[in-house]
Amino acid sequence: MAVFKREGSPFWFIEFTYKGHKVRQSSGMTKKRDAEERERLLRQELKEQILLGKVADMSLGEAIDRYYDGVIVPKGNKGVATRELYALNQIRQGLGASTSIAKLSARVLADYKDSLLAEKKAPATVNRYLATIKAILRKAKDEWGTLAVVPTIKLLPLDNARYRWLTEDEEKKLLPVCAPHLRDLVVFLMDTGARLREATLLIWTDVDLDRKPRAAVRFMETKSGKPRGVPLSTRVEEMLRRLKAECPEGESRVFLYRPVGRGGVGDDGTRRGKAIPFNNPFGTWDTARKRVGLEDVNLHDLRHTFASRLVMRGVPLLTVSKLLGHASIQMTMRYAHLAPDAFDAAIDLLEGGQPRAEPVAPEVALAPVEDRSEGNGRGEFLNGQDGVVGEEGDEVGTEEAGTSANIRAGELEAV
């Protein structure tokens, strides 16, 4: 019997291969005899699935549709549903909608992984597709009764050791070369830590400019699906008041731009058209960063800038985690090395004294970091699984019109 124990685990593990299908999983049993019985049942289930057809057959297309309708849609997050639907359609196309899920062996999925890499898909994207496939197959096995055994699916190792933030000097060089509508978005991302999609989908009903002591925004379309509130810096509050005054009547979206064309004259003398939602800033962003030699800075690095500046000013990591909307504090630990004062205070207490670190004044908490001992805007960290695979911010594209999203308003989450 192919049962064995792993060091540090009370459970016996099962590993065997039958007609190319490899099974490797925990038995959930602490007694060897029980684990061997579980292995015998798994072998029998797999044999019946392959040879006797006792498990109801289901095509991959049917499984994808059922997973989308029964798992993704009920979450009620349109942004997540859109991204998941794209991934599901890519999987459907890559593996074939008519393929039986019983034929998705470890070898087939390994070949599929290799094909994605051959297409120059990013490792994070490949992992996202594989993780989605695994989730579908687990549903088929555990709930739908259409699969006996989930094949082994190995994800790619990810190198999350790089992140980047803007220094004060880099910010001063970058902002003047940004188009006005891009400059507003860049400042907002730097001072709120918002993900790009959270910012571009922001609507005025989720902006509270009357809140005291600071104005605030609510992000309703978040990666985690949980609403998040963030107080605003002075310059962002002033910017939003200006955008509110300039906003066309009846427009719900906060960040807009006027494409070149008829309908008016812009600050640069160019005729510009009707204001539309600013959904895709990658083209104008790429132009701006290249003008000042910051090709290595991505839009998502503005979120790192927000977090890094807070940590370097002594803001507790738990607070930073809440402001960023991280699913766990482990995702925020990448910034821990930027907070030496926290370690100084710990040693002070060890010696029986009072912590030397001074509290951070609210008015400087979001001020740009001077380029001194705090860092040069580049950092390295070792990080494990950062929640859902793939937070992309380095694509390059062109501006294009988009449609407004219907976002539900909610209460401001305490941070």
From TrEMBL:
<dbReference type="InterPro" id="IPR013762">
    <property type="entry name" value="Integrase-like_cat_sf"/>
</dbReference>
<keyword id="KW-0229">DNA integration</keyword>
<dbReference type="InterPro" id="IPR002104">
    <property type="entry name" value="Integrase_catalytic"/>
</dbReference>
<feature type="region of interest" description="Disordered">
    <location>
        <begin position="371"/>
        <end position="415"/>
    </location>
</feature>
<feature type="domain" description="Core-binding (CB)">
    <location>
        <begin position="58"/>
        <end position="141"/>
    </location>
</feature>
<dbReference type="GO" id="GO:0006310">
    <property type="term" value="P:DNA recombination"/>
</dbReference>
<dbReference type="GO" id="GO:0015074">
    <property type="term" value="P:DNA integration"/>
</dbReference>
<dbReference type="InterPro" id="IPR011010">
    <property type="entry name" value="DNA_brk_join_enz"/>
</dbReference>
<keyword id="KW-0233">DNA recombination</keyword>
<dbReference type="GO" id="GO:0003677">
    <property type="term" value="F:DNA binding"/>
</dbReference>
<dbReference type="Pfam" id="PF00589">
    <property type="entry name" value="Phage_integrase"/>
</dbReference>
<feature type="domain" description="Tyr recombinase">
    <location>
        <begin position="161"/>
        <end position="348"/>
    </location>
</feature>
<dbReference type="InterPro" id="IPR010998">
    <property type="entry name" value="Integrase_recombinase_N"/>
</dbReference>
<feature type="compositionally biased region" description="Acidic residues">
    <location>
        <begin position="389"/>
        <end position="398"/>
    </location>
</feature>
<protein>
    <submittedName>
        <fullName>Site-specific recombinase XerD</fullName>
    </submittedName>
</protein>
<keyword id="KW-0238">DNA-binding</keyword>
<comment type="similarity">
    <text>Belongs to the 'phage' integrase family.</text>
</comment>
<dbReference type="InterPro" id="IPR044068">
    <property type="entry name" value="CB"/>
</dbReference>
<dbReference type="InterPro" id="IPR050090">
    <property type="entry name" value="Tyrosine_recombinase_XerCD"/>
</dbReference>
